[in-house]
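Notebook B, p. 112. Complex prediction, attempt 2.
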Amino acid sequence: AQSVTQLDSHVSVSEGTPVLLRCNYSSSYSPSLFWYVQHPNKGLQLLLKYTSAATLVKGINGFEAEFKKSETSFHLTKPSAHMSDAAEYFCVVSDWDDMRFGAGTRLTVKP
Amino acid sequence: NAGVTQTPKFQVLKTGQSMTLQCAQDMNHNSMYWYRQDPGMGLRLIYYSASEGTTDKGEVPNGYNVSRLNKREFSLRLESAAPSQTSVYFCASSALAGTNTGELFFGEGSRLTVL
């Protein structure tokens, strides 16, 4: 069975500083990996996805993530946080038959 | 561009009451899903429909039923609501078949409280 662990339930950064949201996964197969973002009272929106092509994946709004098979990690980064990045972020692991969401990381951005 | 539309957005029920959450998508997607979101638990799949006419159980199906009315619509029914079903429910759709193979498009959620 697959699983995904988001290592931080809450991350707080100052505007203009880097963002790092950590995700480790467990899968028996070569999985697809996703990051979704959820703004307050909204549905989830895809930020980026990894599907066995390039290990460094670029997404929307300046976010990127690197797939590291040896570390079973798929951490999300952004060089400079913006106030509008404040939201909840979900790491997701999937194969054909199963998709698992992490518990989420709430990102707070301080002025 | 409506995308995925869920109704109602908010509902309060008493224990034992029934209700149906409605979901419609206008993207001609084959697959549709119902998830529940609870604090600290991410999203958990209740039921999914890989194509019109088919439905399958997900991770937490107990206490729920679904109907894939046509390609556009996928409803979730609570026959006898329980406080444990207090949650935020999300409908999602995907162009590809399978429990999940690619990008999901989500509705804005339906917040259900069972007293």
